[in-house]
Amino acid sequence: MAVQWVLVCHGLVTLLVVVSFLCGQWPIFQGTFIERIHFFLTSGAYDYFLRFVGAVFGSKCSNAVLSVEYYCCDRPNPILQIFYLGILSMTYYFIVKSSFAYIPGYYLSGIHRYTSLLAVAVGILLFLLTSFSDPGTINSANVSQYLSAYPYDNIIYAEKECSTCKIQKPARSKHCSICDRCVARFDHHCGWMNNCIGERNTRYFMAFLLWHFLLCLYGTVAIGLVLAGRLKELRVVYILTVYYGIENSFLGLAPHVAQWLLGSYNTLILIAVFLAIVGMLLAGFFGYHAKLCLTNTTTNETFKWQEYMSWQRKLNEAKASAAALRASISGMSSDRKPLLSKWRAFFQRSPLQDGQIVQNNVYDKGFVHNVVEVIYPLSSRPSFTRPKLKPT
Length: 392
Ligand SMILES: [Zn+2]
Ligand SMILES: [Zn+2]
Known about the structure:
mainly alpha
């Protein structure tokens, strides 16, 4: 039983590390060990490493590490792109090596040898499209079309100039400090793509996420069917039933079947577990971005709205305490009020609850419009690209 326990532990540790690293800062993990692992992986471990390098090799070495960090995290670089291509090709290579001998099998036809390659090729194509497409770079020549496509809402966006590009900043745009350019309908800078995700390539990014989720699902199901086919072809269930003298019941046989599978096809099971974990993470990430697309919000705007809401909340609190202070001063100076008014005041709504804060997203024009806007960006529509005719 040793091999399968190693595999189970491997799966659990991988899941814990990946979930902690990617999702540990989420509110649901607040105060848990997952949050602590996240902080250790994202900053704690690196701080210890820097201190260790400084103490053992001196400040020159720690400065060298800092400049490597600057190149990796603050400058455009293809490290994660190479990493993505490496993971994809290695995973596909191991799948081919360990499963193609059983395709065609009992449940899978020979066509999956070609469709799997096609599916991976489409994935790479979407990756290249997202990585090398223009996210909506704003320059002095096209700024007017972005300004007309995205009017200021005067809530989270007001008329402003980019201090680096020295051009007017259209609403929903942001200056990406890594790429050093202003990008329209800026979502985020994606290290995996080495590109910003903005107005013109959000569609490719969404297609990339969805396709890679489906790719993981396809891989997991296909490996499951290969293994099920092997069980059927080798009559494993029948042999195990006879060997152990167990009745043909699922609960009685399942541990023996699992043991046999783990002993005979551990590489395939390892790949299936890896694909299932990555697939779940991709599904979560796609779901989050799909919700943003449906409500016509960007990742950048979610931070802006959070800032706006907390500022409004503080403003309401200040107003409420000022009103309470005024009331107590006037209460002290005027004659005593009848007891009934105190009771009424007690049951009245708190002034804090009076100022309802609403997130009024003027760019949200309904699900259908919002999705069409992602697929067919506003600034590429003729109504915004044509020069406006001056009234005569
Ligand atoms: Zn700029
Ligand atoms: Zn960028």
